[in-house]
Amino acid sequence: QVQLVESGGGLVQAGGSPRLSCAASGSFFDINDMGWYRQAPGKQRELVASITSGGSPVYADSVKGRFTISRDNPKNTVYLQMSSLKPEDTAVYYCNAYIGLGWHPARWSEYWGQGTLVTVSE
């Protein structure tokens, strides 16, 4: 059973620089894109950042220059280094990964972590 387990959330002061981690565990063939989404109260889930298996990142405009996504492929782990946090960054942050259980395209699907709450206080 494949699982994504996040860590690193919590209460942070504005301007802080926490790091989120997400590790994939279980039995699988390979991992393609990994990323982070967030959902603030009363809002839809939105992409924060994603990264390809080759390390190419994509960022939402709202976090460009403040957040950095990276991954450690041998550890099946993706990170989100956040900095210059603002109260509007308060949200539940979800890890996302496209994981294959085998080489055939039909065996690839999207997985989600359980979410980790980041609360930014002024």
Overview of the structural elements:
With 122 residues, the protein is mainly β. The chain is 0% helix and 56% strand. It is built from no helices and eleven strands. The strands form two sheets. Strands 2, 4, 5, 6, 9, 10 and 11 form a seven-stranded mixed sheet that branches. Strands 1-3-8-7 form a four-stranded antiparallel sheet, with no helix packed on it.
What are the SSEs and their pairings?
Layout: E1 3-7, E2 10-13, E3 19-25, E4 30-39, E5 46-51, E6 57-59, E7 67-72, E8 77-82, E9 91-100, E10 108-112, E11 116-121
Parallel strand pairs: 2-11
Antiparallel strand pairs: 1-3, 3-8, 4-5, 4-9, 5-6, 7-8, 9-10, 9-11
> Structural class per helix/strand content?
mainly beta
Biggest beta-sheet profile: 7 strands, mixed
Q: Over all CA atoms, what is the radius of gyration?
A: 14 Å
Mean pLDDT: 97
- The gross shape turns out to be elongated
- Taking the alpha carbons of the first and last residues, their distance comes to 40 Å
Strands, total number: 11
Low-confidence runs of at least 5 consecutive residues: none
Number of helices in the DSSP assignment = 0
Q: Which H/E pattern describes the elements?
A: EEEEEEEEEEE
Q: Provide the β-strand percentage band.
A: over 45%
Give the helix level as a range of percent. Answer: under 10%
Q: Characteristics of this structure?
A:
122 residues, mainly beta, 7-stranded mixed β-sheet, 4-stranded antiparallel β-sheet, 11 strands, 0% helix, 56% strand
Provide a quick synopsis of the model.
By secondary structure, this protein is mostly beta strands.
